[in-house]
Amino acid sequence: MYSLKEIKTILKDSKTQTIIFPEGDELKIQQTAQMLVEENLVNVILLFNKKTDIPTNANPKIQMLSVDQIDTTPYINKFVEIRGEKTNLEQATKLMQLRTYIGTMMILEQKVDAMVCGLTFTTADTLRPALQVVKVKKGFSIASSAFIMKKDDQAFIFTDCALNVNPDAKQLAQIGIMATNFAKSMNVANPETVFLSYSTKGSGAGEAVDKVVGAIAELDNIKPDFIYDGEFQFDAAFVQEVRNKKAPNTKLKKAIPDVFVFPELQSANIGYKIAQRFGGFDAVGPFILGLNKPINDLSRGATLEDIYETAIYTAFQALNA
Length: 321
Prior knowledge:
The protein is of the alpha/beta class and about 325 residues long.
């Protein structure tokens, strides 16, 4: 998997991407923007509610916009066109006073390449306009999310830790495909994907197990171009010796798979935080997967380093969108 240093090198050698941060009034966002433009990694636009909110001593390399300065009429008309009968002109006018909607419309109009927010906006605030405007890629019915879990020279992808509360079998299969595609984009060679459960190859039973088995059946029908297997308990997934004992006929070849697909949001969210707090892994993300353009959601407790890394990975996603 590409390191952060390698991604920064790729960004410097490629067409410069433009990221909009709708939370321009947040100090950590302003500090991140300063770091990004000083390193010439991306172009940055900070969005504010009012012109009077814009700092007067900002780096001139950082573009500053405010809602009260923007002519939102083209965005309003375009949004009504996109939404059809679902949104009228009055509703669209109100929505285009929200910075997340303006940022998303700027992506649609190709004025920016990507968006990062979430320090003050909720995940719903971020994703609602994304799903309405940018929409999911052809072939998928949902968006998903993933964390990159890093420790020393190890890097894995955990999914879906932030979005889908209780996906069905078809959705779980899509989540696995999206995360594996993300792994490929991050230069993971021949990624292998494991679907997690409290059962290993029939050792347990119940509706929750049936769903994971169903996801594997979905993939068997789709025949994606990567190795996958399940259902596995985490010890069998993570430890090759245990896996070979519990599931000697597994399709997995690597000592440790690259992508771990959790069966639902509760276990996924708990799982990545256990790895982070008990295991000492750095959790980078969440990255929103499956959208036509990258829009990523920060944790409201994100540190300056978290925001900086997310912005760099987001620019890389935009480069490959």
